[in-house]
From TrEMBL, chains A, B:
Name of the protein described by the UniProt record: E3 ubiquitin-protein ligase MARCHF5
Catalytic activity: S-ubiquitinyl-[E2 ubiquitin-conjugating enzyme]-L-cysteine + [acceptor protein]-L-lysine = [E2 ubiquitin-conjugating enzyme]-L-cysteine + N(6)-ubiquitinyl-[acceptor protein]-L-lysine
Primary site of residence: mitochondrion
Organism: Triplophysa tibetana
Record keyword Cytoplasm present: no
Taxonomic lineage of the native organism: Eukaryota, Metazoa, Chordata, Craniata, Vertebrata
Its membrane topology: Multi-pass membrane protein
Residue ranges occupied by any RING-CH-type domain in the UniProt entry: 4-73
């Protein structure tokens, strides 16, 4: 496309019009390009620039052929416009941080409220209000939001996994349990890969919901199992411990079973339509493994 | 790699061992493959499956050569394990929704609190508390969170843009303003593209923060400008109106100036090192545009 020699009269590389066709048009040679791509109408270049900038009026644009950055000048502005420009820029820069602050504030405030509700749930509605009214406000603003944080952190301690691992390591020594848990004593055909059994991954949503619902569950279990305990606090703590222990035992059992299921999985032969000799031999193999 | 004829003795396509090398090993032919890729050790296939499943023990795996899905069987489980499996699955499925509920609840509760704070700010601390105590709790739980929602929706109405557009459309008829705003009467060298001037985009963080800070600003402006008004509510409303009008006028002025700046931008010639004839002519053009 590019021609070396400059043609006798200017012509615009956007609209292909020559100097003679529009005597009033303003011409510009904005880059290092020579020859037939040297000249362009100011108006054509402006349109092309608009397209390249895509709404970002401050963006730089370069010549696609020689790479020279076009030098764009703007009329000078008054002090008020300059001031408004600076204010606009400062607000644009500050607003993401302010929005982040709003989000943090929202989470914090909800954590405070959750903490207060939990205190009332654990020690009883009236006593909880009394305790919080007598406490130092600063202590409340620091202490109450740590309640949900502690619950989530506590929920992240997966002690059942350690128990399962310990069990698996010392299963040969724990012969007394073999009667209790089916398939415990048998030697395993294979060791399943870590994490392939029983959803070993830490789910964020499950941890969060489990942690937040725990005080209510502890309260409920306490009311069901320890009706004779009169103190609200003691009853909820006992209920919480009972729930954690019961859930832990079920989880350890479940994980151990999942482990055994994975350890005893078996891949079947592809069923052969014709009763071939080798196929039949392998079929009998499958039967023995399916016992 | 694949050989058509089945070799005289089985050999595993993973570990290349033959039947003679390990008489005890279990063999399996899990897919439609024939020839030398027909047989594999059960143990080798299990290892290969673990690698392909990457911890997802329920995932299906197919033969990379013939595409047959391997049929994996698991030992049968008791009713308790089945029940626990169902509970685990139900919890995993429900937890994202529960977590979404927690997020919605957090936002809702913060909106209620923000609404209550705003009511106290606008009508005064003591009177605000009185009003809210006397109101129906259901009405408060529905009404208070709509306050921030309304503020954000109100902030999203960009009336200044309409005023600017109206102004630009009828600028020739508004000759009286030409003295007030510099560069208004002149005919523009070009029409800037929509959205290229003055941050026309709707920033989420700026809209949110602007909306949430508005009652405080209205209160402050009311206290500064309308000290003689005794009613807290009236003073804050007057302050809010004054702030919106002042900000609107500045914004319209700023946008109009940004429009003019973009309309009057000019692209300069590339400076020529030697004083060539055509270069000089264009240089003089630049000077006239920089006035």
């Amino acid at each position: 496309m590019a021609c070396e020699d400059e043609p006798p009269e200017k012509h615009c590389w956007v609209c292909f019009a020559t100097e003679k066709e529009d005597r009033a048009a303003e011409w510009v040679s904005p880059c290092r390009c020579k020859g037939c791509t040297k000249w362009i109408h100011q108006a054509c270049l402006q349109r092309w620039l608009d397209e390249k900038q895509k709404g970002n009026s401050g963006g730089t644009v370069s010549c696609p052929q020689c790479g020279t950055e076009y030098s764009i000048v703007f009329p000078k502005t008054g002090p008020l416009v300059y001031f408004l420009q600076q204010v606009d820029r400062a607000l644009s820069r500050a607003s993401p941080f302010a929005a982040a602050g709003v989000v943090v504030g929202t989470v914090y405030w909800s954590a405070v409220t959750y903490g207060a509700v939990t205190v009332m749930q654990v020690v009883g509605h009236k006593k909880g209000l009394d305790v919080m009214e007598r406490a130092d406000p600063l202590f409340l603003l620091m202490g109450l939001p740590t309640i949900p944080v502690m619950l989530v952190l506590g929920k992240m301690i997966r002690w059942e996994d350690y128990v399962v691992r310990l069990w698996q390591r010392h299963s040969s020594k724990l012969q007394i349990f073999n009667g209790l848990v089916p398939g415990m004593g048998r030697s395993l055909p294979r060791i399943p890969v870590e994490g392939s059994y029983g959803g070993d991954h830490l789910s964020v949503s499950r941890t969060l919901c489990g942690a937040l619902v725990f005080p209510s569950v502890a309260n409920l279990v306490g009311r069901l199992l320890f009706r004779r305990v009169t103190s609200n606090l003691q009853r909820t703590i006992l209920g919480g411990i009972a729930f954690v222990v019961m859930k832990g035992v079920l989880k350890v059992y479940f994980k151990q079973q999942q482990y055994l299921i994975q350890a005893n999985r078996h891949i079947l032969n592809f069923p052969l339509p014709e009763g071939r000799a080798d196929g039949n031999i392998e079929d009998s193999n499958d039967d023995s493994s399916n016992e």
